[in-house]
Amino acid sequence: MDLFRKKPLTLPQGGDVKLSKTLGAFDLTTLGVGAIIGTGIFVMTGVAAAEHAGPALVLSFVLAGMACVLSALCYSEFASTLPVSGSAYAYSYVAFGEMLAWMLGWDLVLEYGVAAAAVSSGWSGYFQGLLEGFGLHLPKALSGTYNPDEGTFINLPAVIIILLISFLLTRGVKETARFNAVMVVIKLAVILLFIFTGIFYVKPENWTPFMPFGFDGVVNGAATVFFAYIGFDALSTAAEEVKRPQRDLPIGIISSLAICTVLYILVSLVLTGIVPYTSLNVSDPVSFALRFVDQNMIAGLISVGAIAGMTTVLLVLLFGQTRLLYAISRDGLLPKAWSKVSEKTHTPVRSTWMVGGIIAVMTGFVPLDRLANLTSIGTLFAFLVVSLGVIVLRRTHPDMKRGFRVPWVPVIPLLSAAACGYLMYNLGRETWIGFLIWLAIGLVIYALYGYKHSKLNQNNR
Fold first, then answer.
1. Would you say the pTM of this structure is higher than 0.85?
2. What's 198-263 look like in SS3?
3. What local confidence, expressed as pLDDT, does residue 362 receive?
């Protein structure tokens, strides 16, 4: 029983209908910005400042951003070397073998799925706030996740947005990219509006004490806001739909991460400068900050930008989830039906609707505060494995053509792995328990189905 059989370096052929190569560097950059800037900046900033880092939230973003930059370099090398769907799952299949690849793929199913559910919950909060600005109110029972004590039973707006995004994804990848680009322009404009408006209301005394929870608080904040950076790795799942993957994927990954890191730092500085950090534990901290200084009209515009921002995050997360399942299914580790591609739209329609349906159920009933850290630990684990995979592939396949090369190997990948491991260590016990239970479920599925139906297993017969 060979649990570590490795996939050949030849690109997969897929079925009769292929995914369309329509994306360029600009499309990937906007998809990256669309994926990264959303719930992290519009929702999680307030919680992280109030409960973990205080005004030192800016350091938390810097720390998390540094870990992401190191990981992004590693992702860029893999993406330019193995331009196939599946992201970290596909890379680890070549570097470490099938069982670890499956476990990482199963981990990414958790990352994308739980992240989409969490983001849609944040989207619902801003959307309901916008409705209330016009004097409209949803029935209490339909306004939040299942909590009979509070009188809420289902988060209906979150369910509806997931289903609408799923429908858009089935129409074709180019159409999806165009919609994303429009939404990205709206949310960048709104974020810049917040920065240039809010800077005039900053009170330096709100930055004192700067580290009320000490350096441990900064690190815990970094582990929490790491949720804000997930998404750039989803770009690598689009590799088979990119015109020039060796060139365009590294550009898209690195440039989108750089843009978003700068914006996160600026927003966190302005946010904690306007409002005392103790008052930021709210569901819409960016809008709240402007209402705090009586800029109510601009606060309303912020809500529109937040809705646009979180819409693009959902778009990319669900896109990444469907392409991941497409790749795993094509390898035989999940049912083949999930890798069927529509002849008309060249998209995996069946798996898109399946993913959308499951996430819609999750987002309707599961609270946001239990989702963010599970997403963070899943992402960090993927980043750690990809970082080590760069070292392994450099040793096992030194002569492979690489469109992008990580500098100073093995130093940079080891620093990336260490940073991710450190942030994982600082996540709570409950998060670790949930993560390990999820991996255990994955092992059972692999033992009962994946190993037997794997294409590598069939080829060896």
1. no
2. HHHHCCHHHHCCCCCCHHHHHHHHHHHHHHHHCCHHHHHHHHHHECCHHHHHHHHHHHHHHHHHHH
3. 81
